[in-house]
Hints:
- The structure holds 2 protein chains of 2 kinds.
- Chain A is mainly alpha-helical.
- Helices cover about 75% and strands about 0% of the residues of chain A.
- Chain A has helices spanning about 1-5, 10-35, 40-45, 55-65, 70-80, 95-130, 135-150, 150-165, 190-225, 230-235, 240-265, 275-280, 285-295, 295-325; strands at about 165, 170.
- Chain B is α+β, with helices and mostly antiparallel strands.
- Chain B has 19 helices and 20 strands.
- In chain B, strands 1, 9, 10, 11, 12, 13, 14, 15, 16, 17 and 18 form an 11-stranded mixed sheet that branches. A 4-stranded antiparallel sheet of chain B has the order 4-5-7-6, covered by helices on one side.
- The longest helix of chain B is centred in the last third of the chain and has 38 residues, at about 575-610.
- The two termini of chain B are about 15 Å apart.
- At the A-B interface, helix 3, helix 4, helix 6, helix 8 and helix 9 of A face helix 1, helix 5, strand 11, helix 8 and helix 14 of B.
Amino acid sequence: xxxxxxxxxxxxxxxxxxxxxxxxxxxxxxxxxxxxxxxxxxxxxxxxxxxxxxxxxxxxxxxxxxxxxxxxxxxxxxxxxxxxxxxxxxxxxxxxxxxxxxxxxxxxxxxxxxxxxxxxxxxxxxxxxxxxxxxxxxxxxxxxxxxxxxxxxxxxxxxxxxxxxxxxxxxxxxxxxxxxxxxxxxxxxxxxxxxxxxxxxxxxxxxxxxxxxxxxxxxxxxxxxxxxxxxxxxxxxxxxxxxxxxxxxxxxxxxxxxxxxxxxxxxxxxxxxxxxxxxxxxxxxxxxxxxxxxxxxxxxxxxxxxxxxxxxxxxxxxxxxxxxxxxxxxx
Amino acid sequence: xxxxxxxxxxxxxxxxxxxxxxxxxxxxxxxxxxxxxxxxxxxxxxxxxxxxxxxxxxxxxxxxxxxxxxxxxxxxxxxxxxxxxxxxxxxxxxxxxxxxxxxxxxxxxxxxxxxxxxxxxxxxxxxxxxxxxxxxxxxxxxxxxxxxxxxxxxxxxxxxxxxxxxxxxxxxxxxxxxxxxxxxxxxxxxxxxxxxxxxxxxxxxxxxxxxxxxxxxxxxxxxxxxxxxxxxxxxxxxxxxxxxxxxxxxxxxxxxxxxxxxxxxxxxxxxxxxxxxxxxxxxxxxxxxxxxxxxxxxxxxxxxxxxxxxxxxxxxxxxxxxxxxxxxxxxxxxxxxxxxxxxxxxxxxxxxxxxxxxxxxxxxxxxxxxxxxxxxxxxxxxxxxxxxxxxxxxxxxxxxxxxxxxxxxxxxxxxxxxxxxxxxxxxxxxxxxxxxxxxxxxxxxxxxxxxxxxxxxxxxxxxxxxxxxxxxxxxxxxxxxxxxxxxxxxxxxxxxxxxxxxxxxxxxxxxxxxxxxxxxxxxxxxxxxxxxxxxxxxxxxxxxxxxxxxxxxxxxxxxxxxxxxxxxxxxxxxxxxxxxxxxxxxxxxxxxxxxxxxxxxxxxxxxxxxxxx
Lengths: 331, 613
């Protein structure tokens, strides 16, 4: 029994090595991918501002774009391994600092939203499947599908119009955007509550938008398990209904949800660009889309490196988790 | 109940009480600010003016920031030697009280004020100005932003604390305008050229001399906070605090204004202005902005080294007569009504009429008006005769091939204008097809000469020198996007650039516009507008730039931040604090309700289980 549950060292090593390989590949791809984009950062930044060729030459030199491509690649590798990730063309600050500033709002917003969506979604999924055809099932499946079909930004705008501006008898109590009220110290108790108050609507939007993902997958995978003989056996043993569900049916129905959770956790750092836009939250998703306009090579490389590293890491965790949940995967 | 309290219900009870504590905390924490505010009478009178911006500044370092919003922040924190007059954007004394020019126009002497103080208590002297300008003159990142204002300046010296001398190699007509922020030598001398590249210049250590002091925020953040400088040499502002909030989308910004969270919203659409116009306590305007939109032609793309043609322009657009004829085929009024929602002014030349000293108004006999017949006649005269199939032919009798009309895919306006243009061209027998490309890609297409026409626009500074330079031969392959090259025009450009007499210069500049109008590398379609709205029930004192018809904020200069004042008797109570209280209570309530639901559901689990058992 203990042998079956423990993971083979070779399996783990193999998966870790594979992930490192993917990461190295992304590191190289990252550099060339963005240089294929149309557009010249110097021209975008200088349009309507810098007149003489001398000024443009100065800007090109400042941005390091006067170097040859192989030289730029070496600089890129150096910057990556020192952890500084280079200087953003647009903001002229170390990319690592910018990412450091922007990652927290995104992690809190999308992380909390994803966590809530997972918990509530799985709970709804289990409940709907267990009582299939009940009023709860019909209502939850119908409404979660409706919300799922709405564009996220539209859902956000509606919530904003209703709960922050106010409609009819509903008072507008939430702020229209931003992370914190001006002049409030974010580390004080008041600051923490102020931020929670600012993030309430965006988190609700993320939760609603992601909810159906989890509830529908959980519902259908649990329905698959419900006809199985082992459940009859479990009931025959005299187990309470809750125990049958919790200890036998749900664990076996979890695998598809684990995949989804792991994948989505990897995407948490990429942010929810449209929701960040509607609620004016300075997150990582917006940072990367803004960088595309320039194009701001160091910032794009830095953010995409973080994004790909997160997805690769989440996949690694999922792979290891499968093997632990279901020994057949290792074979 | 058979089992009065099992483990799970105990957990639920614990969660519920935690939520209650949190609720209590939320209430008390959010209650405290208004209480603190009402105890001190000083705090009660504090006037805060909050501006919602819809575009992010890029850097607060005056040598690095290039977004309009960054210039605004810089202008609030620093002073200028010579700045722009609020009414007409002409040069106005800043830190320089007066100036003198030598008869040959090559030496400028400025008399600097002695009552300007840095925020750390030191005096601003001519040495600070010389330090700033020399940094720009020496090249590097500093030069890339501001170098063009020191054209032909060779030497900058400060013989004493109140005198600054500029020595030039040849006269420069743009002087005395010197709109570069003056930085303190005693702070910035420690920042090397290499460090400047990434110096963020963010609070708390910013030393400035301007009307406001930045006390909180960063360029990439969502809020920037400024405190008034009570000892400002031009007089203290009438507000105590100035806050900028950055919105990533315009709709929420407009909602924040309606709700009263912000007092001013910058850069909104004409549709949003229309929607706000009827609202109580809000004034919404579309102000003339100093920019124009145009349809530009490929007037002859060449390889700059060999002078051989590059790209594949349609031979028709290389002909100035053909381009000029198309000027009468465009219905600019229809563009204004149907693309720009009726806002703005129909366009004529590349110097907007709000710069009335320099603008050239085309006389009636050459001015374009929507007249397809006249366009047809002009095309006939130029040899582009109508074929039997309703499509005109080239002067040599071959059919005109389709013009490639590029629109910017990232601008709805651009796509709409080009769609209309295609129809109007078809009306006069010229075939065309609309192609779209992203701005960044279009730039490459233009540099390769692989286009016939495109739609874009420019902002024009109060001194039109820069805009005029874009149409010179030397700018081809750089900023010229029409590949226009005319030696006569270039001669006039040089003449106005070193003109010493202002009236003569204005005449030359008008002659240049006439030349461009007739050669038609650009068909200027519209002078654009910017939408703004503010809580006129709370704040007043704004002067538009230009007056009348202009915009209120993001002007040249920051006069309106000095003039804005609360409306007498208005309540400036911050509804946000009450909102925080109610919001906190609601958030707590929601958490409590969630816990209650969990408790009930858990109980029901047990009940079903018991039933089955």
